[in-house]
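tool_call predict_complex ligand=glutathione
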Amino acid sequence: MMKFYMTPGSCSTGIHIILEELEEVFEAHIVNLPAGDNFKPDYMAINPKATIPALVRDDGSVLTEVPAIAYWLGRTRRRGKLWSGDVETETRLIEAMTYIAGTVHGHGFARIFATPTFSRNEADQDSVRALGRNIVMKGFAILNKMLDERPYLGGDFTVADPILFYVEFWADKTGIPLPANLAAHYQRMLARPVVQRVLREEGYNPATLGQSV
Ligand SMILES: N[C@@H](CCC(=O)N[C@@H](CS)C(=O)NCC(=O)O)C(=O)O
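tool_result ok
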């Protein structure tokens, strides 16, 4: 059985939704990031990058990086058909996922959630967070255009949508406004039964989300 290493409410929520949308059977292992469990030798032996998510596949090999895990699940697990067969759409989905994980999350939200990683100087912290917020908002404007008026990034629902969802969810939690197409996408995602179930499993009440975006 696959082993999924995750932290509730983090970027691993996107992968958690994909696994459940695909009806995969997996063992969930919670890594307590605030307690620093990602740096403990047991976890570093699984993922030396000390990040979540990590997916240990049936053959024991470990996959890391949100876009790579999402792509592999979408491409190989046929049950949910959560990938596209069209090269142009596939390319655009990879473009969107790498931009979300690399720029909107890695440069934007990381400055908000992990501010001391960017400056140890206490006096700089507010400006680091403000810069992070600007990066997120610029990213949202670009993703808003990418989504256009389609219901989902690839037209039909694919693995890229739960990846977009986790940054929309973070925007909701941090009071960052979503432009119209992303707000509609977020509501569409929140209405999916699997998304509601995963949110409940991770300790959130879906009924309280999406009120202010
Ligand atoms: N590039 C990685 C980033 C993953 C990442 O930054 N995960 C965060 C949680 S959302 C984490 O593990 N942070 C702990 C740390 O960096 O110490 C990916 O796409 O999987």
